[in-house]
Amino acid sequence: DDDDDIPQLSSHTLAALQEFYLEQQQREGMKTSQGFNQYSIGSIEEDWQLSQFWYSDETALCLAKEAVMAAGEGGRIACVSAPSVYQKLKELDGKDFSVCILEYDRRFSVYGEEFIFYDYNQPLNLPENLLPHSFDIVIADPPYLSEECLQKTAETIKYLTKGKILLCTGAVMEEQAAKHLGVKICKFIPKHSRNLANEFRCYVNYASGLD
């Protein structure tokens, strides 16, 4: 029998696999059903292997509103490794600002021309049409709590911004954040949809509404 060499799944494994596919189909069905917002936080699930932890809805909204205020009318906002702030900005549906997302995870390419592939290991490997100092504010959340990651992300931030910087990273990075970006810690404490082991803070280099 030609089928003898084909590995067979046990009935238990097969049932588990079918259950997984059913759940996946249900999730996709919910996403495509009427009223689904492609920009809602969680519409693209966290990938912990990429050190992804989405902000809570309240935090994302607070940071998005701060960015709009800081950018001013007709302002341009860049979200560097901060997709949940980008999503919240799109939910605000403002006509008086524009926004783009620089992100390593190509799942966010569903957002079309506003998505720019970004690898912090190559901080200045950016599209030619992304002109230096062309954003009124840059919001960044480096994926790793290391000075190397912060320093490289800082190169990108300084290239993009006209001046204003809103950095979200661990409290342990306070000295390095001041050293590489000249930012100071804010009173506002960002929260994530899942609690993180490390204390998280916001840092800015301008008079913000986060104090």
Automatic annotation (TrEMBL):
The keyword Calcium does not apply. It comes from the Eukaryota. It is found in: Cytoplasm. Keywords: Cytoplasm, Methyltransferase, Transferase. InterPro entries: DNA_methylase_N6_adenine_CS, Efm5/EEF1AKMT1, Mlase_EEF1AKMT1/ZCCHC4, SAM-dependent_MTases_sf. The keyword RNA-binding does not apply. It catalyses: L-lysyl-[protein] + 3 S-adenosyl-L-methionine = N(6),N(6),N(6)-trimethyl-L-lysyl-[protein] + 3 S-adenosyl-L-homocysteine + 3 H(+). One of its GO terms (cellular component) is cytoplasm. Pfam families: N6-adenineMlase. GO terms for molecular function: nucleic acid binding; protein-lysine N-methyltransferase activity. GO terms for biological process: methylation. This is EFMT1 methyltransferase. It comes from Scytalopus superciliaris.
